[in-house]
Design a protein that fits this description.
single chain; alpha/beta; Rossmann fold; 3 domains; 6-stranded parallel sheet; 23 strands; acetolactate synthase activity
């Protein structure tokens, strides 16, 4: 008869978590690097007590907001290339569903994240409890059902023994290269405190090694045939290249076969900026060098990318009617998009086997040489946008240039939504894998500061720079206090363009009147708010300064490197200036009927661009 150990369900959960291991750089380490927690009546007695006893094995970190602490966990897992991860626990009600947005980020970005929101009483004796939202027609519903559409696996723990299958299923999802994403275990608060005789075998140490799926021989043969016939092939590197740790393999593959490489937002830093075949960003926020080649490409080898609309220019980028897409991806859903030839495999193994079967084949030398010449031309243009300036309000691009000059390429960059991702994708010069971290799958404003903490926890020896706009800062800045409290030092560059500058530009481009985006266009007040971001950051314990010029920004960045804690550097920027070179059309629907001639003109341009979409090819 198997031995058992009597534990509460919460104690069993954390004991199980501490027994799960991963392999990072050949060393076995705990797969869960910590638990983010904000306690309330739905988890403080059960989970709180359990976590206190394992705090030496599973550190508990306290966030200021449930959404942002989950963002930190996501950023950590992404920077660790999904080899390690974090979990988050909350009370019931608003604390729980504050994490729904973060769950969607992890779901879209294919990031492992274990969410453990408290839930109402399984016994239902005290119903309705504080923060319970009752469904008049379904007694089984709680607000945690909101997690179902944005979880790869969802379970509700209503009995302590249900943890045994639930946690085993959760680990399979969290570590599977194709199914990876958020797992939600909705944990009834009375069950957390209920005891059960768990089998000791449930807590046995287990190592979760990376699964490297090898390609099907028929799919491999079809991909090889397509590439051998190619005259103008390109490679699009997505986040799967980084998750697979395939950067060196990709560089060798591209060099051997003479194929230029373009990077998505998730895949940027797959190759160093200096790699001779790295054409930089692709798509709506892409370089002219990369997009010119994609327009002509007859074979597109899409490696580890879900081919979202910013990558494909809303499926208007690839103009060659004879093109073939090869989808090298662990997930068949992504590998077969837009009638692609699927090559369902791990990125590293897939590239290795492709290369072996291609033998000495290489793209025409003229194609490779033309690609490299085009990138040199692009860099001359890009450098002009990032060059120093004495402008009273510099552009985002000029700020990017200043940050890069002051800190070099050996830093890790964090960013998210707004106008900066487009500029950074085109202009930032990444030097090592996973040094560029833009949350642009779900494009979630407010991700940046919390994400910077997660990135720093994953890369403690790296200088982590967070770049964000004032709009995103206003949405979620409270984790500045967390970074100070934890001693996790980051450098925050805050670009103040007085509102939502990116959407203001998009609004104008669609022919609409500018309103409701910038403070200066506020239609309700005569005076716009004067926000002192420096004083605000200082109030949370950060070192903060205002840079009145690019030169002052560079000097402040150098000082921040040796600062003892998190620094925030604020600089005013121009909301209208943007890098108009490069890029590609992006489909944003313009009203079909309007009394404004500007909107009607924008609609005509929109309809003309729609004709270039090749969705059915």
């Amino acid at each position: 008869m198997s031995k058992t150990i009597r534990l509460t369900a919460a104690q069993a959960l954390v004991k199980f978590m501490t027994a799960q291991m991963s392999v990072v750089d050949g060393v076995e380490v705990p797969i869960f690097a910590g638990m983010w927690a904000i306690f309330g009546h739905g988890n403080v007695a059960g989970m709180g007590e359990a976590l206190w006893h394992v705090r030496d094995k599973l550190p508990t970190y306290r966030g200021q907001n449930e959404q942002s602490m989950a963002h930190a966990a996501i950023a950590y897992a992404k920077a660790m290339r999904r080899r390690r991860m974090m979990a988050c626990t909350t009370s019931i009600g608003p604390g729980a569903i504050n994490m729904v947005t973060a769950a969607a980020v992890a779901h879209v970005d294919r990031i492992p994240l274990l969410l453990i929101p408290g839930d109402i009483f399984a016994s239902r004796r005290p119903d309705p409890v504080l923060q319970q939202a009752e469904d008049f027609g379904d007694g089984t519903v709680s607000v945690n059902d909101c997690f179902k559409p944005v979880s790869r696996y969802f379970d509700r723990i209503l009995r302590p023994e249900q943890l045994i299958p639930a946690l085993n299923r959760a680990m399979v999802v969290l570590t599977d290269p194709a199914e990876c994403g958020p797992v939600t275990l909705s944990f009834a608060q009375d069950v957390q405190a209920e005891a059960y005789d768990y089998p000791e075998s449930f807590f046995a140490r287990r190592v979760w090694a990376q699964r490297r799926v090898r390609p099907d021989e028929n799919e491999l043969a079809a991909a090889v045939t397509a590439l051998r016939a190619a005259k103008k092939p390109v490679i699009i590197a997505g986040g799967g290249v980084l998750f697979s740790e395939a950067s060196a393999t990709l560089a060798a593959f591209a060099a051997k076969h003479g194929i230029p490489v373009m990077e998505t937002q998730g895949g940027k830093s797959s190759l160093p900026f200096t790699d001779p075949l790295n054409m930089g960003a692709v798509g709506v926020t892409g370089t002219a060098a990369a997009n010119r080649l994609c327009e002509q490409a007859d074979v597109v080898l899409a490696v580890g990318t879900r081919l979202q609309d910013f990558t494909t220019g809303s499926w208007a980028l690839f103009q060659n009617p004879e093109k073939t897409i090869i989808g090298l991806n662990t997930q068949v859903f992504d590998a077969t998009k837009h009638r692609a030839l699927p090559l369902v495999a791990d990125a590293r193994v897939g590239l290795e086997e492709l290369s072996a079967d291609l033998g000495g084949w290489a793209a025409p030398k003229a194609w490779t040489a033309d690609a490299q010449a085009g990138f040199r031309d692009w860099m001359a243009v890009a450098d002009s946008y990032t060059a120093p300036s004495n402008a009273e309000r510099p552009s985002d691009a000029q700020v990017i240039g200043a940050v890069q000059r002051a800190l070099g390429r050996e830093v890790s960059l964090m960013g998210a939504s707004g106008g900066l991702p487009g500029e950074l994708h085109k202009l930032w010069q990444a030097s090592y894998p996973s040094s560029y971290h833009l949350e642009y799958g779900f494009s979630c404003m407010g991700y940046e500061i919390a994400g910077g903490i997660g990135m720093k926890l994953a890369q403690p020896d790296r200088e982590v720079v967070v770049m964000l706009g004032d709009g995103s800062y206003m949405m979620m800045n409270s984790e500045l206090a967390t970074s100070v409290m934890m001693g996790v030092k980051i450098t925050v560059v805050l670009l103040d363009n007085r509102g939502f500058g990116c959407i203001n530009r998009l609004q104008h481009a669609c022919g609409a009147e500018r309103f409701n985006n910038l403070y200066d266009y506020n239609t309700f007040q005569e005076e716009s708010p004067q926000i002192d971001f420096v004083m605000h950051a200082k109030s949370m314990g950060a070192i903060a300064v205002k840079a009145k010029s690019l030169a002052e920004l560079e000097a402040a960045l150098v000082e921040a490197k040796s600062a003892p804690r998190t620094s925030v550097i604020v600089i005013d920027t121009d909301p209208m200036m943007t890098t108009d070179a490069g890029g590609h059309w992006w489909e944003v629907a313009v009203p079909e009927v309007s009394v404004r001639p500007q909107v009607n003109e924008a609609r005509r341009n929109y309809e003309a661009a729609l004709a270039k979409q090749r969705v059915g090819d």
